[in-house]
Write a structure and sequence with these properties.
Blueprint (H helix, E strand, L loop, with lengths): L3 H29 L7 H15 L9 H29 L11 H12 L9 H4 L2 H28 L11 H26 L11 E3 L2 E2 L7 H10 L20 H26 L5 H21 L3 H7 L5 H13 L14 H13 L8 H20 L5 E2 L2 E2 L2 H27 L18 H20 L14 H30 L16 H25 L8
Antiparallel strand pairs: 1-2, 3-4
Length: 556
Amino acid sequence: MVEVSAVTEVLLFFALLLGVAIPFGSYMGRVYTNRPMLGDRFLVPVERWLYRLLGVNPRDAMGYREYSIAFLLSSAMIAVWTFLILTFQASLFPGPVPFTAMTWETNIHTTVSFLTATDFTHFAPEVNMTQWGNLLGLEVPMFLAPAAALSVTAAFVRGFIRHDGRLGNFYVDMIRTTTRIIIPLSILGAIVLLLLSVPASYPALPWAGPGVHTPGFPGPVAAMQSIVYVGSNGGGWTSANAASALANPSIWTQYMGMGLFLLLPFAFPFAFATMVRRPGEAWPYLGAVLITFAVGLILFISFEGVASQAAAGYRFGLVPDSTFQFASVYSNTGANNLQIAYVSPIPQMTLLFGMFTQATPGSDGVGFGTLLVFALLAVFMGGLMVGRTPEYLGKHINVTTMRWTALVLLYHPAMVLIPTAIAYLGGFVPPAVAFGSFPGCASATCMNSHAFTTVLYEFASESANNGSSMSTFNDATPFFNLMGAAVILVGRFLPMLAMLRIGSEFSKSQPIPPGPGTLQTSSLTFMLYLTVLLIIVSALLFLPVIALGPLAQLGG
């Protein structure tokens, strides 16, 4: 039975979230267009010092090639740093805590996962991480990876407002994103979580043994959870993630976590509108996100069975816990507060659909970038239907743009379906009985479908840089480590580089005046058109595997 009070709480939460996201998105737009704002007096000298330290001239704008190389080089440096910390953490940070080193392939998977804000873990932090290895090896990319994603998306958007073939300066974008968005939000989030009884301390971890926590304060959980949420990172100080009473002790910390990981994805449409100086352009994107999100959440709650609720571990009630888990997956944060393997098949299907779209709202920056790519496809198709050369924001959509747009939309099913097929055909998936039982699934057919859904979910989560997992089998094997790392890398860098290429094409185009056949994109009609297109395209790409997985479980 759904409680009216719980539904009211959720509705009030989203009303408050939008009330904050609108002005914050405008603030982000000012950050990325370098307009004067509050805080310049203190932050500009710091940023100038960082530019000098890096040898960067902030006035030098980069083209597609330069921006892409800077992005890839910085990512490579972060990867080297993370891999070395993970490899030598026992020697660098010795202590009394029981510790088991990761295998080399798990090191690779972990490095790639945290480099890309995926944070899909094939290890147990309580066993395989030292305290300072966790802080220096994992938290550093937790700050820099979302900053890079936001920077690349901002450069993508600049293509619509520039006419010189330039996209901005990557290092300037990274520094300003970190100093003006990521760090302030993370500090504020950590303080609020601390006030809400999430622990924060730096003594040696008080463990009774490997993987066994004793009561007390096991580390700077509040600080880590804050950047976990703000950066669309997922993961956590312990394996239990957001289901842990340490990281998420009350309904208030749960709502605070949702606010932190939804703020930037919901704010970016308004940052986009501020950057292109067209306030009305934000609302069709926000509307498409809210419609898809609301329909999926209603399906999740409506089809979650009583037995599944007991098995999945709902702590604060069906509505608030479902909303957190659903929002976490749809924002590609992946901070689990439920055991997804034990929720009902239809809710599992709705979670998969959120990772298939990657844009409702998706992760920090990249989610909106993907939604903008869907919009370009919608405008292109609309232009063809009315017999007019497709254009968006006064810029022509050319053949090259559509090729890269198609690549962004088609790479994802390939990176989910091909590895899933290889895993099964290559014999890397254990028998279905190894996945355990779950409520309502007794037949061999149902168990096989459940196992298939688990593997499908794993690769969908990795390709979408989501990080949530059903985790009912041992995936810390060489195959799943190395294949997963490859999927994560392609899932992260290919669409971001494609977005930069699309932005570059638009930045070379000269503006054209609107005419009588120009598609009005800041309208209710376009919002509905975009929503339907997004749902249909995503469904068509993945419907067969949905039938083999979650839908096949319905027979029991």
